[in-house]
Amino acid sequence: MTFGSKNKILGSLRALRSGAFFASFAQTLSRVTCTIVRRLRLKERYVLSRHNHLRLRYVSLLLVFICTGFAALTLISPNSNAWGIGSVDIASIKPMTQYGDDVDGISESALFGDLSLVAVMPRKVPKPPPLEQRVKIEPGDALGLVLEKQGIGVSMAANVIEAMKEHYDPRYLKAGQVIDINYDPVKSGGRSFRDLSIALNPIKTLIVAKKGDEFKAHIDEKKVEKVTRAKQATVINSLYGSAVQQGIPQSIIAEAIRIYSWNVDFQRDIRSDDFIEIMYESYETKQGHVAKNGDILYAKLTLSGREIALHRFEMKDGRVGYFQPDGRSIKRTLMRTPINGARMSSGYGMRKHPVLGYSKMHKGVDFAAPTGTPIFAAGDGVVEKAGWFSSYGRYIRIRHNSKLKTAYAHMSKIKSNIKPGVRVTQGEVIAYVGSTGRSTGPHLHYEVMSGGKQVNPNSIDLPIGEELEGAQLVKFKDQMTRTKRQFASALDKTRIAERKQKRKSFF
Fold first, then answer.
1. Among 475, 445, 448, which residue's Cα sits nearest to residue 461?
2. Most buried residue among 315, 357, 423, 501 by CB atoms closer than 10 A?
3. What is the C-alpha to C-alpha distance for residues 164 and 158, in angstroms, rounded to an integer?
4. What is the CATH code for 132-221?
5. Is 389 within 8 Å of 409 (Cβ atoms)?
6. Is 341 helix (H, G, I), strand (E, B) or coil?
């Protein structure tokens, strides 16, 4: 501090001596100080001036202590005016009588001015509420309560829910789903509801917006385009599990198994290190979200070195089928196994009956599977019998032609549309695995009857379906050549897309 500035401060402090209030205060403070100095046996020249006044340095310290105390009390109770400081008008304090020439004092304005600034310190202005809110649905949440927690009134929340019911039932909201709510600001500093959106899936988003006094809801659906995907998978344990684990969609591998099941037994023919390659249609957004999967265009299943390829081909009459490279349809009169994912638990022939306890001819094949597993019609035909049948439990018999029939037993449920006289198509679900009738556990009992007698389903020579000829065969061969080139190109594109997706998820 410079000499000039120090003199200014001292002059300002000495200006207090003209006030009668401070003169009285200074006299009282001096008397108290003299008493304390004598009792503590201190040297008066270190504490008091030659006029027996408290030296300026101690006055300053005392003032700092008093101001700090008042400030602390004010912060603890900012609305309190118990000390009478907040209402002090500095301009109303007028100078009074002087008190000597050499008093080391301080003015009332300096004393009370700073304290008044503390007492009338402005309050913090609250931040306006956010205009965008994202809410995550928790277990047990109801949409109405969620909206009310976000400041949306009961009647308005009811209107929002009523509007969305045209497109979506709010009872189907699940934990983890996200609701984005947008508001408009109002002059009072609050906000009013504008709209909300709920992502139903990667493609569809439900939007409810307020239009005047009404609430309108609509579905915003992203555009999708058809792309061709190609993938490969090596069998580790099961074809289905290995294919899904290596990136083939569940619906596609299930459809491939259904097509191949016309001449492949997936319980006995599949081995580790077998291989499948497949090309299919996929409907996706620009962001890569899959809306649905389309048709299988090409597949090749390699079983113990034996290749079984099939190509999708539309015939001149509009029918679509899957054909092998030689033009023969892969579809046979009967499927080898009319059930997916089942284990053959008992073959055709003599055996010890598990319930009766003695040897008896088993005139069919048993497939063990969990209750509820779908059962397919082994071929096109007409239902002859559907219902309860003796020890067979729930039973279905289908006539495929003048010689061949198939029977299915022990089902837990028969589909409601499967009745005598109804025509069914190959691969159509007709019933579900169960354990009705004389049975020790859930399984399908499957019989093939030729000429009225049960025969071994695994040894009967089943005729294959139609064959392409002439111009149809030439067209199929040309398409097959294009398909091979398309598969190689699609496989490269799929691998590039998968690498990009992995990089995005990594970062």
1. 448
2. 315
3. 10
4. 3.10.450.350
5. yes
6. coil
Cα–Cα distance, 199 to 177 (Å, whole number): 8
CATH topology of domain 343-455: Glucose Permease (Domain IIA) (2.70.70)
d(CA 164, CA 455): 58
Termini Cα distance of the chain:
58
CA-wise closest residue to 239 among 287, 299, 173: 299
Read off the DSSP letter of residue 307. E
Fold of 224-331+464-507: Nuclear Transport Factor 2; Chain: A, (3.10.450)
Question: CA torsion angle for 308, 311, 312, 313 (degrees, to 10)?
Answer: -130
Q: Which residues are bridge partners to 449 per DSSP? A: 405, 454
Helix (H) / strand (E) element for 498: namely: helix 470-506
**Are the C-beta atoms of residues 397 and 378 closer than 8 Å to each other?**
no
Q: Which residues partner with 382 through β-bridges? A: 399, 423
What does the domain layout of the chain look like in residue ranges? 3-119, 132-221, 224-331+464-507, 343-455
For the record, the structure tokens of 188 come out as 């009072």
> pTM for the complete prediction?
0.51
